[in-house]
């Protein structure tokens, strides 16, 4: 579904993700974990096509309009003047096009999605009036109507209370049961072990990628922490890149 071939992504020549290879299989449910600054968000943005690779490539086997991407809550403009139902209806946009109207079926779908995320009665509220947990539920409702094949979630449960987390995790399990491919950046190890069969552990490089019980083993986690402590934030190009350039 998503194949990474020796993928390197850099910000102003500082590599944030380094020579990562592997693939997210169709229908898999994968947690992406690693210390702060280990390249997790960068990986999702590269998969979404928001950041170009500086080396290698990322190949996604579904059209762009069948990918749902949920950025970190902090990156979302909450001041945008839009009502909750209209925000959910944005999920239909790939099907109805820029100028297409909304039909009764799509309106019903949006209201059903709001009901499914526990926001019945919120349809006419301005988005800016919602709490963080309510906003996250709206964004999940939007993904429900989008009917995506590939779902990329960046820290979807951070700052959510246990009730909201349980409700949103149930949707993730539903998507997995429906055969969709889900990739979620997470920081809660217990949650990863309990709900995510596959894990990619990053420390700018791939530390381990495979079944969660194997990847979340202490030696790999220790290795990732040690790599994070050794990062040189001013490094410009890695030794492999320098050698290749000189060859
Ligand atoms: N827009 C940017 N410009 C410059 N550097 C950036 C930018 N975004 C991220 N970085 C750097 O790239 C590295 C990886 O960042 P990224 O956000 O991918 O990490 P992360 O694993 O998602 O971190 P966290 O767990 O803290 O969210 C970090 O050193 C970060 O400072």
From TrEMBL:
<dbReference type="InterPro" id="IPR027417">
    <property type="entry name" value="P-loop_NTPase"/>
</dbReference>
<keyword id="KW-0067">ATP-binding</keyword>
<keyword id="KW-1003">Cell membrane</keyword>
<keyword id="KW-0472">Membrane</keyword>
<dbReference type="InterPro" id="IPR003593">
    <property type="entry name" value="AAA+_ATPase"/>
</dbReference>
<keyword id="KW-0547">Nucleotide-binding</keyword>
<dbReference type="InterPro" id="IPR017871">
    <property type="entry name" value="ABC_transporter-like_CS"/>
</dbReference>
<dbReference type="InterPro" id="IPR047748">
    <property type="entry name" value="AztA-like"/>
</dbReference>
<dbReference type="Pfam" id="PF00005">
    <property type="entry name" value="ABC_tran"/>
</dbReference>
<keyword id="KW-0813">Transport</keyword>
<feature type="domain" description="ABC transporter">
    <location>
        <begin position="2"/>
        <end position="229"/>
    </location>
</feature>
<dbReference type="GO" id="GO:0005524">
    <property type="term" value="F:ATP binding"/>
</dbReference>
<dbReference type="InterPro" id="IPR003439">
    <property type="entry name" value="ABC_transporter-like_ATP-bd"/>
</dbReference>
<comment type="similarity">
    <text>Belongs to the ABC transporter superfamily.</text>
</comment>
<protein>
    <submittedName>
        <fullName>Zinc/manganese transport system ATP-binding protein</fullName>
    </submittedName>
</protein>
<dbReference type="InterPro" id="IPR050153">
    <property type="entry name" value="Metal_Ion_Import_ABC"/>
</dbReference>
